[in-house]
From TrEMBL:
One of its GO terms (molecular function) is 17-alpha,20-alpha-dihydroxypregn-4-en-3-one dehydrogenase [NAD(P)+] activity. This is Cytochrome P450, family 17, subfamily A, polypeptide 1. It is found in: Endoplasmic reticulum membrane; Microsome membrane. It comes from Neolamprologus brichardi. Keywords: Endoplasmic reticulum, Heme, Iron, Membrane, Metal-binding, Microsome, Monooxygenase, Oxidoreductase, Signal. Heme binds at C289. The keyword Metal-binding applies. Its cofactor is heme. The keyword Signal applies.
Amino acid sequence: QFLCSVLSEAADVGLALDLAPELTRAVTNVICSLCFNSSYCRGDSEFETMLQYSQGIVDTVAKDSLVDIFPWLQIFPNADLRLLKHCVSVRDKLLQKKFDEHKVTLDLIDALLRAKRSAENNNTSEISAESVGLSDDHILMTVGDIFGAGVETTTTVLKWAVAYLIHHPEVQRRIQDELDRTVGDSRSPKLTDRGSLPYLEATIREVLRIRPVAPLLIPHVALCDTSIGSFTVRRGTRVIINLWALHHDEKEWKNPEWFDPGRFLNSDGTGPTIPSPSYLPFGAGLRVCLGEALAKMELFLFLSWILQRFTLSVPPGHGLPSLEGKFGVVLQPAKYKVNATIRPDWARHKCQAE
Ligand code: HEM
């Protein structure tokens, strides 16, 4: 709702908007309300700090990832590693503050603290809060992981989605037709509408295919001797999965560089499908993304709300957003500006409400 009101204010005065900070704030607030039962307003200085350290981490993790591959290289002076350590320490201080401020509420920290207290009360020589991973430090790092994994990823997918929608007004129109037919303009889309909006679902899948947020997933280590196809993988080997190659494999995807949500629709166009097993935007197996279900809900709600109310386009005098991306642990699009125009039915709606 806040995001839509920012778009609405910009639309009223014809302002070209950099959506990135607004999308980040909206996604951060989803995670904040889950972890701390709180949210940030526009211009909050703590939120600005969070934006800065988060970008610092994205810019340095996996950059020229030689240290990731040869960890002993960290003995040499390294400006990126220094910046990374600084950002992590700012993050830890902020999380510690949130943790100290924490009152009794119903959120993730609260649930973890209750589990810790219950483990402490049942303390026996075999089971202690510490041994089941519930020290204060574990709780802080769990919340840190949820932030680290849950904000930049979802925000980046939304930025790519908007960039592709601006490049493809015909895709926007088709989603809007679908929204008009199934949801209308007298209420906002809900999660229960997801099953009746297959083209929007197919578009989200195509964005996740064509610009996978984690093009090399997260590095894995083989826990035992094993094999992948005809390759032997020894215990302790670092395994990097090239998701980019899987998602752009010409044997699996016709014209893989074309943005075509239709490839994720079944033959009669009535439901979403996954046409190839070469599609793993959230990874697979034991270490598959923990937040997949949450991320899909967010992507659906953000995009359906925005497209129900607005049409997105390139502001006059600006070029189309670049689709190249900046490679790092997360593949981010370059900055771009967007024009939001209120759709005629919503404009009427607003007038009636005033
Ligand atoms: C569209 C958004 C997202 C995408 C594309 C995404 C993608 C991924 C990928 C590719 C991995 C690595 C899987 C592997 O290496 O096999 C991963 C791991 C992970 N993700 Fe996500 N993610 C998203 C959102 C989220 C959210 C919202 C959360 C939490 C609230 C989250 C939490 C995690 C965690 C904790 C892991 C590590 C799991 C483990 O190692 O056991 N992710 N994600």
